[in-house]
Amino acid sequence: MGRLFRIAPMVLSVLVLANVASAGAPPKDPFNSPMWGWVYEEILEQGQVIFDDRVKVDAPDSAEGNFQVPVSVRVDGLDDVTEIILIVDLNPILKTAKFTPNKARPYFALRVKMGQASVIRAAARTKDGVWHLGGKYVDASGGGCTVPSVQMAAADWESNLNNVQAQIWPRENGVDRIRTRIIHPMDTGLSGNIPAFFMEHLSIKNAEGVELAHLQTFEPVSEDPVITFEVDAVGETGGYSISGMDNNGNEISAWVEKAPKS
Amino acid sequence: MKRPLIFLSFIFCLLAIAPTFAESLSYKLKPVKVAEDTYIFQGSKEHFSLENGGNIVNTGFIITKEGVIVIDTGPSARYGHEMRNAINEVTPLPINRVIVTHHHPDHFLGNQAFSGAPIWALPETIAAIRSEGDAMNENLYRLVGDWMLGTEVIVPGKSVNRSGEQIGEHRLRYIALQGHDIADLAILDETTGVLFAGDQVFMDRAPTTPHADIGKWLESLDQLEEIDFRLIVPGHGPVIGDNEAIRQTREYLQWLVKVLEDAADQGLEMTEVMNLDLPNKFKSLATVEAEYRRSVHHLWPEIVKRKLPKAVDRRID
Ligand SMILES: [Zn+2]
């Protein structure tokens, strides 16, 4: 089945929306994004905003393919981060993910779909309610040999839906890095008559059921999401549960165990 | 939640770069004689840009009594036309045929200029040009702009399905390979010993991997190394009379696979892999920093998919 994620500049919508944001005049955006006013108003709800180098977004300068653009977010030196929102300004759907680091480092990595060149931003909210913003501009003209506009979902996605792969890597300072891959088509609903069909929630919990990290995901997250977290380590042995749900109510539920030390 | 609406498709972007002074653009193609009856047009070792117009590729031609054999046609109609004119200045003989080595846009988008001559390619290449050619054409338009004006995809009509043939006084061997692309055709002119290796071989320039299967590519390089050639014309980079281009390409690909597999084993994520330092020995390869990152894009998702273990399923059926 062909799944299109259309390349769509939003010049007109930008012209309209740029005027709307004047109510609580937003601080100047270092990226000069035409969507900043909208982001400030609709996603950050005109909260207090600081552009902050401690919020680091890493992504390639130029995206080779539009469907698997890697992004990692790390907040370094800010205490009490309560949530991090990932935003791709010039995507038709801007809000890409919302991360809640309950007992996790303020860090996550995933891949996103991009319709065109855009700033990718992370808005990290601290306990005092202030938004700390970092970002990176990513060009999306492609490499020349890759075909940009059509994505074919794997033929066997239906029988493998919500199957989970995962691995744990112990890191320094009592942190376990967990990477998980979930089979899901992540349809945006923006093309043809294929309705939106995407994973909405993903939780990492310990054996007692305490949630260590939570990620809310939206349509622009890439097909078969690959997501990396860093959580407070469970100990030398043990493991984590990986659970979640898509927007059709299909369950994700799996367990990953630490590899025995060799 | 309010959602911005989509009004424009990217067709408009294409219209927006309409030409005003496109007529003055020229690739200034100069044929270089590399062997008896055999010439190449050598492109730069760069990536596609507005400045180079996509002339980053080596194309060539062989003059026989039965006409001219053209090998690859370059990145645009303009390139193809310039190529044909340059060939006409060397010989009055007609074009006998065009042979396309593989389905990357810098190798076949000049086909249009050779109307009247049959265009040959491997069957997989023909199918891939048919399904992806238009999208590649559009993408190259975005990267190099006006140079592409009027370029249309011409799908090769003749399938290379034999191991060689005699054309005039030249005996050609067709070597069907895989790994750089879904299908790669190398052409050995047994009469002169010139091996047109297509993008199976890069010289002093980082290999590209958008459709690569590195395992198959390495096997193909072993096959090429067995061939008794006098001169290799690589897809990109200067011609060379020994195995150095094959060695360079192999060494880089072996390193690339190993660095990605090791990174996956260590739990690195994709942006971290892109930020790894490259070994000094590869730093002399043109475009290697950017090409390495593009290769991470191409190859990493599959490596993660293959390496990440299955978690224990806890869903209740
Ligand atoms: Zn190629």
Instruction: Indicate the radius of gyration of chain B in whole angstroms.
Output: 21 Å
Determine the strand fraction of chain B and express it as a percent band. Answer: 15-25%
The global form of chain A is globular
What is the class of the domain at 29-242 in chain B in the CATH system? Alpha Beta
Strand arrangement, major sheet of chain B = 1-2-3-4-5-6-7
What percentage of the residues of chain A does DSSP assign to strands (E)?
35-45%
Q: Report the largest inter-chain contact.
A: A-B, 66 and 55 residues
Structure notes:
- The complex is a heterodimer of chains A (262) and B (317).
- Chain A has three helices and 17 strands.
- Chain A has one domain: SoxY domain (Immunoglobulin-like, Sandwich).
- In chain A, β13 and β14 form a beta hairpin.
- In chain A, the strands form three sheets. In chain A, strands 2-9-8-5-6-14-13-16-17 form a nine-stranded mixed β-sheet, with no helix packed on it.
- With 262 residues, chain A is mainly beta.
- Chain B is α/β, with parallel strands linked by helices and 317 residues long.
- Chain B has a domain of 214 residues: Metallo-beta-lactamase, Chain A (4-Layer Sandwich).
- In chain B, the strands form two sheets. Chain B has a seven-stranded mixed β-sheet with strand order 1-2-3-4-5-6-7.
- In chain B, α6 packs across α8.
- The radius of gyration of chain B is 21 Å and the shape is globular.
- The N terminus of chain B is likely disordered.
- At the A-B interface, α1, β4, β11, β12 and β16 of A face α4, α7, α8 and β13 of B.
- Zinc ion binds next to loops of chain B.
